[in-house]
Batch of 2 targets.
Target 1
Amino acid sequence: MYKIPAKTLFIGKELVFMPECHSTNSFALDRCQQLPPPSEGTIIITNNQYAGRGQRGNNWSAAPGENLTFSIILKPSFLPLHDQFLLNVCTALAVADFLVEAGCNMVSVKWPNDVYVGPKKICGILVESQLRGNQLIWSVVGIGLNINQQTFSISTATSLSLMTDRTHDLNGCLAKLVSSMEARYLQLRQDQFGREHKKSLVAEYESRLFWVNEQHEFDSIDRGKFVGTIQGIDPLGRLKILIDDDLATFGMKELTYLN
């Protein structure tokens, strides 16, 4: 059913399709433990992911056969452990690249790695890694992107079809998204040779942050409810928020967006 165009260098050259799957990320992580090991760029994709996982242990549900739910197996041994959040950065930018090319406006990244069109979520990303000492051995990038789904159980979700008022070919969307992902991943790999290049990648991500430079209400474990302004991310990928005259940082499970 799915195939990747020959122009990609390595992502998608090995593609495993399952009509249904509990979680493509879980399947991919298990596959990384088997011999022979998978090729870097292997894609695990399904039409029906019935136990998908999101950030903070949340579930990710999608209507069967209407959206893209897949995982990419990467081997980012070039990436220092303290820079692993850059995998989230390049994946979110790849999704944004795809959506802009598909005709969407107001595409943003709701930190740490949800992608929004306007005020509504269109994509969830989950990056999970396996370590050996202080080195990244495998990373699995899970992407759930709403393509043709028309109705949702929550009012804050949307799809590419709803945003563009037409139906899209899933295989064509996969091919374009994988091409974008490969381009961003290769950019990340190249950027390790120049700190200034990495800064430009992060700056682009920060420019797309949801609510960036706007004053909004948040809730956190330590501070409770507060009003602050998102400034960007720190070198570890934590969100920077200006609260009065104090610049605070928050980890992935420490912050909730309000209003």
Note: Residues 170-191 form the longest helix (22 residues).
Target 2
Amino acid sequence: MTAYATRYGAPSEPPPRVSIVTTVYDRTACLARCLRSVQQSTYRDLEQIVVSDAPGAAVEDEILRLVTAQGDPRVRYLALEQRAHDWGITPAAVGLRASVGEFVCFLSDDNAYLPAHFPPLVAALDAEPALGFVYTACQYAGRVRLADAPPKGGRIDLGQPLFRRAAIRRHLHDDLPFTHHAWDWSLIATLMQHGEPWRFLNQPTFIFRVESYPQIRRTLEAAG
């Protein structure tokens, strides 16, 4: 079991419906924008679990400062005790196991959700209890829009889907047993190979690399 320290927060009671796992790799400026994007969500029944990859004391303290500055008990901060350096797999797995939501998603530190991201995703999962995951379109690094259905390797980012936690538990036992760079696609592909139904909502509410979208970046920075 991966050793980590809880630097801030505790699971909410009652449990929220949505858990957001945010992995951070030393990029505190990016993380500030990511946190603000979640704070601006119109969907409120959620938690955000920030997990850092043993970045050192100074960076840990800055992450803690950013998390506590939200003044939001729905935000938690966990810090790995040893560097994993494995494309975010270990921090994401720690956040997944710590999460308590019925639905779970993964939002890296340099990405963001638009305010209206969650309501249609939760509504779709509620309307079709058999669905394993639902995903929206992605505004990708200022270059292209990812809106592929069915999902394809290299054409979907891990930040797009909202997963039904039971599907991940059923097929992956609440773990991310991957060891390669494209592990995000392996997670999605594993669920599809096991026959988990999915749904695509053609709304570009996930932003990959906020840095590439000046207007969105300015809006999030102004919110701070």
Note: Helices lie at 28-39, 57-69, 89-98, 118-127, 165-172, 183-193, 214-222.
